[in-house]
Amino acid sequence: MKDDVVNDAEPGHESEGTPAETRCGFVALIGAPNVGKSTLVNALVGSKVTIVSRKVQTTRALIRGIVIENHAQIILVDTPGIFLPKRRLDRAMVKTAWSGAHDADVVCVLLDAKAGINEEAEAIFAQLASVNHPKILVINKVDIVSKEKLLKLAQMANERLKFEETFMISAMTGDGVDDLRRRLAADVPAGPYHYPEDQMSDAPMRHLAAEITREKIFRQLHQELPYQSTVETDSWTERKDKSVRIEQTIFVERDSQRKIVLGKGGATIKSIGADARREITEIVGHPVHLFLFVKVRENWGDDPNRYREMGLEFPHD
Ligand SMILES: Nc1nc2c(ncn2[C@@H]2O[C@H](COP(=O)(O)OP(=O)(O)OP(=O)(O)O)[C@@H](O)[C@H]2O)c(=O)[nH]1
Fold first, then answer.
1. Beta strands in the chain (DSSP E)
2. 20 to 30 A Cα–Cα from 174, which one of 1, 46, 190, 229?
3. Ligand 1: which atom is nearest the Cα of residue 170?
């Protein structure tokens, strides 16, 4: 059986080789469209983060970026398509998306200082009432709003919901971002890094590529394979000509499921692979060579780590 790369990460070490107590956790960024999430992720990470396509709306939680601060690895996740769902499908997706927030160690609620508590923010606040995790309020775009308006907004938001702390920042100018990063680093629980440092930069893409393949599997096999498969990206190698070689393993629980995924003469997996490759290529912007493997891993459904990696809540009953 193949072990997951992610969990092989050694706890962090200081540069001079002294072992350090590390922390690691998930921070869910919640906010209405245009509140400045991408800008904030870039500001927190400190460099341009891989663009994660908005097209993939079926995912529960997307890794937007990974930050190291004071021996803490902060994994920033986003739960797309979360607000004011109109259609039934959207509503179903929103429900799962919120499980990403429930699973996070810290929930960062972003408010647009200019827009204030509008209809979308109201909808988020209503949903957040049932999220018990520590919540931090981040009022963004302070560069374009007066102090009085900001204070009023902070007060109104804090009357609605219990926040551990309120940060007033400008993701654009970087004002207040360092303080927020320090707070998040202190808030994530003690534990080893989830992603090895040499994989941090492509981790969001690895994760997204795995989500895409998983989505294609469900699209083709949803009735035959309910929730019993997971996909992991084992390797991601960029070649000189910019093309990318990606190897992924699809884990199923039983041999009968493996046969279903493979299909007659390998027809099903070929078709899943072709669909996934097309979409991953679009996001990567360069040719992609995708290699899929199917393996049986018994009882993965009982392993909380698997759920966590997918941004899912582990069902305890
Ligand atoms: N003035 C000002 N503008 C900002 C700030 N942060 C983000 N913006 C602007 O707000 C707009 C939306 O920012 P994004 O970072 O794309 O917002 P987002 O929340 O990621 O958007 P979605 O991914 O669509 O939900 C962009 O035009 C940003 O330049 C800020 O601190 N101040």
1. 23-30, 62-69, 72-78, 106-112, 135-140, 165-168, 229-238, 244-252, 288-296
2. 190
3. 31
